[in-house]
């Protein structure tokens, strides 16, 4: 976002500040590789200050409040940053604290240490039932838990343990994957790979002593190893600032990306309540829209760029093969066949991400 803006504006025209408590940006799709020992966490993290122009003011601090009346951002160090235009891009908070039953015996792959810990657990697991479940909706990267199941199938086939290991996937909705066109293919793969899936299973309580998940629908599933997509929430400061309510997702116009009920504030990426996937590609296609509209606002021109809901995603089906899906608000995806080419593009995406995408070059 900063790079897209900085390209359109000159340092003598505007001040741009980026505020983040840590500039160690994490390439999260890499967790699907680190959890199987196919990449190292240290390779997923890079300092974004090296990726933005020197004239951009990088403030290493946490936003604690936005005073929308006086157009001020307050930080935890007690600083105030004045703005004319504000872009919220604070992502989703991994909110295991909101499930009182959550403890460290429940695995996930939504943070670097959790993915590393899961790698150790998968490596030492020899026999029994792995359940991959979802604590709450929405969550980042809707394909990720299904990809994790299919990669587990391949991982245990390759190390000869698959016959002793059952893999069960639970979906909170009435099908395995939310988008029907893709779901048809996904359910075929799950059956082919002997991955049991249960639909309409909304996890309500996990008894980690008894190793049992209870669903809101009244069903129980026992497990030996539980991998659960943790609850996701928006950040508390957004609620405290009167910008968001409830679970903290920012109410955002799905086309203009302006925050509803606010002046001069846009939101992008995972922090919004927009009805589309929480995905990096979503943020990627939103950034130029916001940049163009901020430039128009500065120049007193009409803000006429809109976001059409464009999302792209590689959908891994095994080590070495992936589907590719591409869609927007009006056109559902036609999933490609699972091919080596998409796998290699996903594998090669990390360097492309850090050298081109994050730098705003594409
Ligand atoms: C396992 C997994 C696999 C994935 N695979 C894919 C994939 O294949 N394709 C895809 O497109 N997406 C994928 N994603 C999703 C993708 O990583 C996210 O959607 C993307 O990172 C969202 O970007 P964001 O900028 O909105 O949030 P983030 O990347 O989470 O960044 C949020 C930033 O806000 C900062 N922040 C938070 N609170 C504050 C505060 N109070 N003050 C200041 N700064 C703050 C954080 O420090 C962070 O730098 C995957 C995610 C996971 C977990």
Give structural notes.
With 362 residues, this protein is an alpha/beta fold. It has two domains: 2-21 and 61-92 and 234-309, FAD/NAD(P)-binding domain; 95-231, FAD/NAD(P)-binding domain (3-Layer(bba) Sandwich), CATH 3.50.50.60. The protein has nine helices and 20 strands. The strands form eight sheets. It has a four-stranded parallel beta sheet with strand order 12-11-10-16, covered by helices on one side. The chain has a three-stranded antiparallel beta sheet with strand order 5-6-7. A hairpin with a 4-residue loop joins strand 13 and strand 14. The structure holds flavin-adenine dinucleotide. Flavin-adenine dinucleotide is lined by residues 19-22, 28-29, 31-32, 62-63, 89-91, 109-110, 140-141, 144, 235, 237, 269-271, 278-281, 283, 313-314.
Helix/strand layout:
Blueprint: H1 2-8, E1 17-20, E2 24-26, H2 31-34, E3 45-47, E4 57-60, E5 63-67, E6 72-75, E7 80-82, E8 86-88, E9 93-94, H3 112-124, E10 128-134, H4 144-158, E11 165-170, H5 180-192, E12 196-198, E13 203-207, E14 212-215, E15 220-222, E16 225-229, E17 232-233, H6 236-240, E18 265-267, H7 280-298, E19 311-318, E20 321-327, H8 340-347, H9 349-357
Parallel strand pairs: 1-4, 8-18, 10-11, 10-16, 11-12
Antiparallel strand pairs: 2-3, 5-6, 6-7, 9-17, 13-14, 14-15, 19-20
The chain binds flavin-adenine dinucleotide.
Flavin-adenine dinucleotide is lined by residues 19-22, 28-29, 31-32, 62-63, 89-91, 109-110, 140-141, 144, 235, 237, 269-271, 278-281, 283, 313-314.
